[in-house]
Write a structure and sequence with these properties.
The complex is a heterodimer of chains A (about 475) and B (about 850). With about 475 residues, chain A is an alpha/beta fold. Chain A is built from 13 helices and 19 strands. In chain A, the strands form six sheets. An eight-stranded mixed sheet of chain A has the order 7-6-8-2-9-14-5-15. Chain B has about 850 residues and is α+β, with helices and mostly antiparallel strands. Classes of the chains: A alpha/beta (about 475), B alpha+beta (about 850). Chains A and B meet through helix 2, helix 6, helix 8 and helix 9 of A and helix 16, strand 3, helix 25, helix 28 and helix 29 of B.
Chain lengths: ~475, ~850
C-alpha cells in the first residue's frame, strides 16, 4: 500500500480506532493489555448520557458552606468554634424546601434541573492527603496499586471511544502539574494500563486551549501545510518505503496524519475561546475555572466524550482552605456560581443537557472542628484556636470526610431531587442514604451505559472499573 | 442414612458448609450415572482441569481438599471424605456439583457442570474411581528454574553459538535466512542498542570504509567499551525495571528513595549481574530504594505494604513471575499462594506479618520462605540482616537458573524486539527455542554474569544481523523467529537523537551521577578556583544575608559547549544576562548548568545571588538587619568551561571564582522577595511553595567592590575536592546532557516514558494521536527545533551548501538522494532561512527511517 492509498483508506476511520487496535499496546507483556473481559451477569444498560462533564472542586469543598446550609453564625470576636456550623446564611432556590448558601444565587435558579447528593462520604484512608483522596475519587482505587489505575475519564474514553473522531475523547481542563504535589496528581491523571491514547488530553489553561490544537507558535497555516506536504513527499522518497509496510511505520504515519487532520478540522475551533461572542464569554469569565466551563461547553458541542474542569488543586490554595475559610469561600463561590449556571442553561438551550451528565464534586468536605470522621478521627492538620478573635480563623479549615455534596445535572438524573440527609448539629455527618465512591462511579458509568462490573485484563487479571466490580448504581438518582 | 441439608453449618463457619447429607428426593433429582465404562483421561481429567484444579490442586487446597492424585482425592477435605467409592449418590462431591445447597455449589466460579458431566462423574465413582497413575495435578516442578547446559549443535567452530542453535531451528521451520543487513543498518542498530545514540557521521564513514572482516565485532566491542555512554543508555532500561526516577510520588515526604547514584556506577563499571542483584536485594548504601518501595502516607491496602511491594518486585524483575495476584489471595493465573507472597514479604519485615486475604485478616502468620523453596531456605529465627543476606544468596546462587534466564530473555527482547519467552514476565513458559535460552543463560553465568559479554554475544550473532521483520501481525501461538523486529526509538533515544541532530540537549542533569576515570582526567581544572565572599574571614563567619557576585565575559561567538558548576554556602540563584539559569541549596553539591541558551556574542554578565543563612539554616528576611550573633561561614564557588571548536581547532575558555569577580550586598530598591508565598500558617499538608518564583533579575545590585579570595575548594569548613569538581564538570561533556539523566518532560512522556510508579518491563511502542500531537505542535520539540535551526545557521563551521547533506548524515546516516536533496533545499530556502531549517529538522525527525530501528 502506498502512502496515498493508505491515506485514502484511513480517512474515514476514527482517531481512536486508528491508534488503537494494534497488538502490544502497552504494559508488562506483549499481550493486548486492555482486552475487555465479558463479565457474567452483566446487565445491558441503556445509556442516558453521551458525555460527562466533571466540575472538580479541588482541595475539599465544605458542604455546610455551599450546598448543605446549616445554622449560620455571623462573625464576631470571641466566637467559640463549636458554635459555628456555617459562615453563610441560607438562600432559597427555585425548588421548594431546597436551600443553598449565600453566594450561589445563580445555581439556585437552575436547581430545578439538579440532583443534589448531600451524603457523599469519602474513603477512610488514614492520614488526610488531598492527592490520595483525589486519586481514589478519580480512579476508584486507593494508591498505591500494583498496576497503573486509569482515570474514570480514560475508562469511559477507552470503553465508548470518541463521540467525534476529531475531538479527543478525554479532555482535562485547568490543572497544572509543576506545582505542589504535582507528581501525586500525575499519578491519577493517566489512562494507566489502558494506554496513553485514551487520554487525558491536558489543557492547563483554558485561555490557551486553542494553542494545543494549532500549528506551533509563529507558524502560519500555509507554512504548516507546506511542511506537511513536504513531509509526505519525503516519506514517499525514503528508501525505507521499499521495505514494505510494517505496523510500527504505519502506526507512526497514521498518528501524524490524524493529528494533521485534527489541527485542520473545524472541531479544532471549539478550543478557541476567542471565537465565543463577547457577552457570553463575559458571563463565564470569572477566571480560569469559569473559562474552563465555557471551554467544556464548546467541546461538548463539538463532540467531546468526557471533560473534567478543575478549580485546580494547589496545596493551600482555592478550596484547600486552611485559614480565611470564610472570605476565601466568598471568592470561590464567585468563581463557580455564574459559569456553572450558565453551562447548564447553555447546554439546555442547545438541547444537549439531556444527554450530558454534569457532576460537581470534591475529594471531601470540611468542618471547623472534626478532622476525618467523628467515629474515625485522624490527626488534626489545622490548629483551631479556642476562641475566634480574628476573621482568618472564621471558616471550615479541617478535613471532614463524613459528608459531602455532589451536584448533578442532566444526563438522565432527576430534576429538583435531593438525595441524602446530614445532621443539623455538629458533627454535620451523613444520616441517610450514604453514598460512597464505588456507587457514585457506578452511577456515572450507568448513565453512559457501562456496567460497574466491566473489567479490563491486565497481566492476566481482571481490573474492574469500580473496585472489584462492587459498585452499585444509585437508581434513585435517575429519572 | 440421614438425609438433611445441614445448612446451619454454613452459618457457623464463614466458608460455606462442605458437609451435608442428601434426601432420597434429591437422589432422584440427580442425573443418572453414565452407562458406559469411564475413561479417566478422556472424560474425568478434562472436567477436573476445567472446573476443580484452580482451587483444589497445583498447590492449592481450598477447604482442605486437594485432588492432586487419587489418594488425596479419597482422603477428602476439612469436613471429611468427598467421594464414597461405588456410591456416587452418597458422595459429597456429587451433591456439591449438583448444587443442592445453593450457597455451596461447586465449582464456585465459572460455569456449572452439565447433567452429562455429573452423570460421567457418578459413573466414575460408581465404577471405583480409576485414575491413570501418570496423571497428577500436583504442583509441577517450576520450569526454567534449574540450570541446564545443552550441547551446542554441530557447526563451524567460528560460528556464534546462537547461530548454531538456530540453524536446525531454521531448517525445521523451512526458513532460509537471508543475507545480513548492510553496514549502515547494522551500525545504526549497534549504536542505538549499546549506547543509545545515532552513529556520528565520521565514525559511520570510517566503519563503512573499513575492510576488515571482523569489523562488526570490533565495533560492538568498541561501543561496549564506552562505559559512560553505555551506562547512560542502559540507565533507562534499568530505571524502568527498578522503577527508579528523579521525580514521582513518594519523594515529597521521604516515602521513596532514588538508587540513581548506585545504579549509574553499577552500569558504568559493568558490575557482575549476580553482585548487582545481590546489592539490590540486600541493600548497600544508595541501593535500598528498590526494596524500600513507594510509601504514601495514610492507610495502605495490605497487598501494597512496602514489604509486599518488595516481594512483588523481586519476583517480577529477577524471577520473571507475577506475585501480584497472590498478594491478595491464592493466584488464579499461576501457582503462587498467599503464603508464598507473605513468606517472601516477611523477609523484609521487622516483625512477623499477619496474612490478609482480600482485605480480611486471617490471624495466620506466614512462614518465611522464598517463592521457590527448591532453591534454599530462609532461617525463621535469623535477624533481618541475616535473612536479607540469605535471600540474596538464594537468588544469586549458581544453581538459580531462573535469574539468568530472566535476564537473558529481557535482553533478547530488548535487542530483537521479542523475547525467547513471551510475555517476559511469565518465565514459567517454554521458550520458542528452549535450548538456546538455556545455553545463553549458562554461558552468561559462566562468564562471571557479565552483562556486556551477553550483549556482545547477541549482537555479534548472524541472527541479530538479519533484516528486520514486521512483528505486528504475529500472534503468540505461531511465532517463528525470522530476524529482529522493526523497533521504535525509545523516548530517551529519540530525544538524544534530536541532540545529535541539533546540538540542543538538556541544560543540567537531575540524576546525581559521577562518571569514573579515565574521562575526567581530560578535564583537570585549567585555571585556579577559590571560594570567594565579600569579607576575607567569611570561611569562619560572615553576616547573614544576600551577597551578589558579578563577572563579565566577552565572547566572539556563542560557544558550542558552555558548562558551569556552582555552589554556595548556603544557597544561590544564578543569572546570566538577566535570565535566571538555576539555583541550589546544598554546598556539598556542585550544581551543573548548561549556559549556552543564555549566552550571546559580545559581553555576557554572570550574576550569582548568594545567601548566607541565619542560624538553623533559616533564610534571612530581605532588607532586615540580621540579629547579632547570627554570623556563620559563607562562600561561593564557581567554575565554567566554554568551548568552541570547528573541525580542526578547539578553543577553551575557563572561568573560575577568584578576586577578579565583583561583589555587592546592596540593591537599588527593596527587593521583590522571591521566597515562598505559602498561604497557610500551619501547613501540615505537603507541597512546595507556589507562585512568586523570582524569575529574572529585575532589580540589579549596585556599589560593586572586589570579591575576597577565601581559599582553595578543599578548605575548611567545606572540603570540596578538586577531583569532585572536575568530575562534575566532566559529566557535562560534551555539554549535552542525555535524556536518561533528567526527569520526564511532556515530549518524553508523550513518547512513552512511563512514570515509573510501577515496574515496567516492556514499553508500548505504538504511535498514538496524542503523541503525534505533542510532536506536531508541542512546545518542547518546537523549542528544540527553533534553537537548533538557529544554532546551525549561526555556526560558521557549517557551510551553507552542505547543510542538507550534513543533516541527512546526522539524522539518517546517509546522503540524500537527488530528489530528496532538491526537495530539502527547496524547503530550507535560498539562502537558508531559520523557518526552513526548522521545518527540515521536523520532517527528518518524523520520518519512519529516523524514528524506527530497521
Amino acid at each position: 500500500m502506498t502512502r496515498r492509498d493508505f491515506l485514502k483508506t484511513a480517512s474515514a476511520a476514527t482517531l481512536s480506532a486508528l491508534s488503537a487496535g494494534f497488538p502490544r499496546q502497552l504494559g508488562g507483556a506483549s499481550v493486548p493489555a486492555s482486552r475487555v473481559i465479558a463479565t457474567e451477569g452483566e446487565e445491558k444498560i441503556t445509556p442516558t448520557a453521551d458525555s460527562v462533564i466533571i466540575l472538580w472542586m479541588a482541595g475539599g469543598m465544605a458542604h455546610t458552606e455551599t450546598f448543605d446550609p446549616k445554622l449560620y453564625t455571623p462573625f464576631e470576636r470571641g466566637l467559640k468554634p463549636d458554635q459555628v456550623l456555617s459562615t453563610f446564611p441560607q438562600i432559597d432556590t427555585v425548588v421548594d424546601n431546597l436551600k443553598l448558601t449565600q453566594g450561589l444565587e445563580n445555581i439556585a435558579r437552575v436547581m430545578d434541573r439538579a440532583t443534589l447528593i448531600r451524603s457523599y462520604t469519602a474513603g477512610d484512608l488514614g492520614f488526610i492527603l488531598h492527592s490520595r483522596h483525589q486519586y481514589q475519587w478519580h480512579t476508584g482505587y486507593a494508591p498505591p496499586q500494583t498496576v497503573a489505575a486509569p482515570h474514570i475519564g480514560s475508562v469511559i474514553a477507552r470503553t465508548l471511544g470518541p463521540r467525534n473522531p476529531a475531538v479527543p475523547a478525554f479532555i482535562d481542563i485547568g490543572q497544572r502539574f509543576d506545582l505542589g504535589e504535582g507528581e501525586e496528581l500525575k499519578a491519577f491523571h493517566t489512562a494507566g494500563f489502558l494506554g496513553s491514547e485514551h487520554g487525558p488530553f491536558i489543557v492547563s489553561n483554558p485561555e490557551e486551549a486553542a494553542k494545543s490544537v494549532r500549528p506551533p507558535a509563529g507558524m502560519s497555516p500555509s507554512r504548516f501545510e507546506r511542511r506537511d506536504t513536504f513531509y509526505r513527499k519525503l516519506v514517499e522518497e525514503s528508501p525505507i518505503g521499499q521495505l514494505g509496510s510494517d505496523y510500527q511505520k504505519e502506526s507512526l504515519l497514521r498518528s501524524l496524519d490524524n493529528t494533521h487532520r485534527l489541527l485542520s478540522s473545524p472541531a479544532a475551533k471549539a478550543f478557541d475561546l476567542a471565537l465565543e461572542p463577547r457577552p457570553i464569554y463575559d458571563k463565564y469569565n470569572t477566571g480560569r475555572f469559569g473559562l474552563g466551563c465555557l471551554l467544556a461547553r464548546r467541546l461538548t458541542e463539538a463532540g467531546a466524550r468526557f471533560i473534567e474542569v478543575t478549580s485546580e488543586y494547589i496545596p493551600f490554595q482555592y478550596w484547600d482552605t486552611h485559614e480565611n475559610g470564610h472570605t476565601r469561600t466568598i471568592d470561590l463561590k464567585k468563581s463557580i456560581d455564574a459559569p456553572i449556571a450558565q453551562l447548564v442553561l447553555d447546554l439546555e438551550e442547545r438541547g444537549l443537557l439531556n444527554r450530558t451528565l454534569i457532576v460537581l464534586a470534591s475529594e471531601f468536605s470540611r468542618d471547623m472542628l472534626v478532622e476525618g470522621k467523628p467515629d474515625n478521627k485522624v490527626k488534626d492538620q489545622v490548629k483551631v484556636p479556642d476562641v475566634i478573635d480574628e476573621l482568618k480563623y472564621y471558616g471550615m479549615h479541617r478535613h471532614f470526610t463524613d459528608a459531602g455534596c455532589v451536584l448533578m445535572f442532566g444526563g438522565g438524573v432527576k430534576r429538583g431531587y435531593l438525595h441524602g440527609v446530614t445532621a443539623d448539629e455538629r458533627p454535620c455527618k451523613t444520616l441517610e442514604k450514604r453514598v460512597i465512591i464505588e456507587d457514585l462511579h457506578a452511577s456515572i458509568y450507568r448513565a453512559v451505559g457501562i456496567s460497574p462490573k466491566l473489567s479490563y485484563e491486565i497481566e492476566k487479571r481482571p481490573f474492574y472499573v469500580t473496585r472489584d466490580g462492587l459498585g452499585k448504581p444509585i437508581l434513585d438518582l435517575f429519572a | 442414612m440421614k438425609f438433611r441439608l445441614a445448612t446451619w453449618l454454613s452459618l457457623l463457619c464463614c466458608s460455606p458448609a462442605l458437609s451435608f447429607t442428601i434426601t432420597p428426593e434429591q437422589v432422584a433429582q440427580l442425573p443418572p450415572p453414565a452407562n458406559h465404562k469411564i475413561d479417566f483421561s478422556k472424560e474425568i481429567k478434562p472436567i477436573f482441569e476445567a472446573s476443580c484444579i484452580k482451587c483444589h490442586a497445583r498447590g492449592k487446597d481450598k477447604g482442605g481438599l486437594r485432588i492432586d492424585t487419587r489418594e488425596t482425592l479419597l482422603k477428602g477435605g476439612d469436613t471429611g471424605p468427598v467421594v464414597t467409592l461405588g456410591k456416587s449418590a452418597d458422595s459429597l462431591l456429587i451433591a456439591l456439583v449438583q448444587g443442592f445447597d445453593p450457597d455451596s455449589v461447586m465449582p464456585k466460579k465459572g460455569s456449572r457442570l452439565t447433567p452429562e458431566q455429573i452423570g460421567v462423574l457418578r459413573a466414575w465413582i460408581d465404577q471405583g474411581a480409576d485414575w491413570d497413575p501418570h496423571v497428577t495435578f500436583a504442583r509441577l516442578p517450576p520450569a526454567n528454574l534449574k540450570p541446564h547446559l545443552p550441547e551446542i549443535p554441530p557447526g563451524p567452530e567460528t560460528d556464534n553459538p546462537i547461530d548454531r542453535f538456530l540453524q536446525p531451528y531454521y531448517v525445521s521451520h523451512n526458513f532460509l535466512p537471508p543475507s545480513p543487513v548492510e553496514d549502515r543498518t547494522f551500525a545504526r542498530r549497534a549504536y542505538l542498542d549499546v549506547i543509545g545514540l545515532l552513529p556520528p557521521p565520521n565514525e559511520l564513514e570510517t566503519f563503512v570504509s573499513n575492510k576488515r572482516p571482523d569489523k562488526r565485532e570490533m565495533l560492538v566491542k568498541e561501543l561496549l567499551a564506552d562505559d559512560r555512554a553505555y551506562a547512560e543508555n542502559w540507565l533507562t532500561f534499568w530505571n524502568d525495571l527498578l522503577r527508579n526516577d528523579y521525580k514521582g510520588t513518594g519523594y515529597i515526604d521521604g516515602g521513596r528513595k532514588q538508587i540513581t547514584t548506585w545504579l549509574y556506577s553499577a552500569l558504568q563499571t559493568n558490575m557482575p549481574f549476580n553482585q548487582f542483584v545481590s546489592q539490590l536485594i540486600n541493600p548497600v548504601t544508595n541501593s535500598e530504594g528498590f526494596t524500600k518501595g513507594i510509601v504514601w502516607r495514610g492507610v495502605v491496602n495490605a497487598s501494597q505494604t512496602p514489604q509486599m511491594q518488595a516481594a512483588q518486585n523481586i519476583s517480577q524483575v529477577f524471577m520473571g513471575v507475577n506475585l501480584k495476584c497472590a498478594s491478595c489471595h491464592d493466584s488464579f493465573v499461576n501457582d503462587f499462594t498467599l503464603a508464598d507472597s507473605y513468606g517472601l514479604a516477611g523477609v523484609y519485615a521487622d516483625d512477623p506479618l499477619e496474612m490478609v486475604r482480600c482485605d480480611k485478616p486471617t490471624g495466620q502468620k506466614a512462614a518465611l520462605k522464598f517463592i521457590y523453596p527448591e532453591l534454599g531456605n530462609i532461617s525463621p529465627d535469623a535477624d533481618k540482616h541475616t535473612r536479607l543476606k540469605q535471600l540474596a544468596e538464594i537468588i544469586t546462587q549458581r544453581e538459580d537458573g531462573r535469574l539468568t534466564r530472566t535476564l537473558v530473555n529481557r535482553l533478547w527482547q530488548r535487542l530483537m524486539g521479542r523475547g525467547l519467552v513471551e510475555p517476559v514476565d511469565e518465565m514459567e513458559k517454554t521458550a520458542w527455542n528452549q535450548d538456546l535460552l538455556d545455553w545463553l543463560a549458562e554461558d552468561f553465568a559462566s562468564h562471571n554474569y557479565d552483562v556486556k559479554f551477553l550483549i556482545q554475544r547477541i549482537l555479534t550473532s548472524r541472527a541479530y544481523q538479519l533484516p528486520a521483520v514486521n512483528l505486528g501481525e504475529q500472534t503468540e501461538q505461531n511465532f517463528v523467529f525470522h530476524g529482529p523486529a522493526v523497533r521504535r526509538l525509545s523516548a530517551e533515544q529519540f530525544r538524544d537523537a534530536l541532540t545529535s541532530l541539533t546540538g540542543i540537549g538538556y541544560p543540567s542533569p537531575l540524576a546525581d551521577v559521577v562518571p569514573v576515570e579515565p574521562e575526567q582526567k581530560r578535564f583537570a581544572l585549567a585555571v585556579p578556583i577559590f571560594w570567594i565572599w565579600n569579607s576575607t574571614n567569611a570561611s569562619e563567619k560572615a553576616k547573614a544575608g544576600h551577597v551578589y557576585f558579578r563577572k563579565t565575559v566577552k565572547l566572539s561567538v556563542v560557544p558550542q559547549d558552555a558548562t558551569a558548576i556552582l555552589t554556595a554556602d548556603n544557597t544561590f540563584t544564578f543569572y546570566v544576562n538577566d535570565k535566571q539559569v538555576g539555583s541550589g541549596n546544598d554546598f556539598k553539591n556542585a550544581y551543573l548548568f548548561d549556559l549556552r541558551p543564555f549566552l550571546k556574542p559580545g559581553e555576557n554578565e554572570f550574576i550569582v545571588d548568594a545567601v548566607n543563612n541565619l542560624a538553623g539554616n533559616v533564610a534571612p528576611t530581605f532588607g532586615q538587619e540580621p540579629p547579632t550573633g547570627s554570623e556563620s561561614p559563607a562562600g561561593m564557588l564557581f567554575y565554567a568551561r566554554l568551548r568552541h571548536f570547528d573541525y580542526s581547532t578547539q578553543k577553551t575558555n575557563d572561568i573560575a571564582s577568584d578576586s577578579t569577580w565583583l561583589c555587592s550586598d546592596t540593591v537599588q530598591t527593596p527587593w521583590q522577595n522571591g521566597s515562598s508565598a505559602r498561604a497557610a500558617s500551619g501547613p501540615s499538608d505537603i507541597g512546595s511553595a507556589v507562585g512568586a518564583a523570582s524569575s529574572d533579575m529585575a532589580n540589579p545590585p549596585i556599589a560593586w567592590t572586589k570579591a575576597s579570595k577565601l581559599g582553595d575548594p578543599g578548605m575548611i569548613p567545606w572540603r570540596v575536592t578538586k577531583s569532585y569538581l572536575s568530575t562534575k564538570i566532566a559529566s557535562a561533556y560534551p555539554g549535552r546532557i542525555r535524556a536518561s539523566l533528567v526527569a520526564a518532560d511532556p515530549l518524553m512522556t508523550a513518547l512513552g516514558r512511563p512514570n515509573r510508579e510501577q515496574v515496567v518491563t516492556t514499553r508500548s511502542s505504538v504511535a498514538t494521536t496524542l503523541q503525534a500531537l505533542e510532536m506536531t505542535n508541542g512546545e518542547t520539540l518546537d523549542d528544540i527545533l527553533k534553537r537548533g535551526a538557529n544554532d546551525l545557521l549561526n555556526n560558521p563551521a557549517m557551510a551553507k551548501k552542505s547543510l542538507v547533506p550534513t543533516l541527512y548524515e546526522r539524522a539518517l546516516g546517509r546522503q540524500p538522494t537527488g530528489p530528496e536533496l532538491e526537495l530539502a533545499q527547496n524547503i530550507v530556502g535560498k539562502p537558508a532561512q531559520p523557518a526552513g531549517v526548522e521545518d527540515l529538522l521536523w520532517t527528518l525527525t518524523m520520518l519512519p527511517e529516523f524514528q524506527l530501528i530497521y
